[in-house]
Amino acid sequence: MFTSLYIHVPFCEKKCSYCSFYSVVEKNKIDSWLENLEIEARLYKHEPRIKIKTLYIGGGTPTVLKISHWRELLRIINENFDLYYLKEATAEANPNSLTQELINFFLKNKFTRVSLGVQSLNDYELKILGRIHDSKIALCAMELVKASGLFLSCDLIFAIPGQTLRTWAKSLKTVIKFADHVSTYQLTLEPDTPLGQELNNQDLNESGYKFYRYAQYYLPQKNFLQYEISNFAPEGKECRHNIAYWTQADVIALGPSAVSYVNGVRYKNPELLEKYFSPDLIEREELSPREREIEKIILALRTKWGLNRSELLPEAKKILDSLPQDLFIKSGNRIALSPRGMRLGNSIWCELIGL
Ligand code: SF4
Question: In order of start, what are the domains of the chain with their CATH numbers?
Answer without folding.
Answer: 2-244 (3.20.20.70), 288-355 (no CATH)
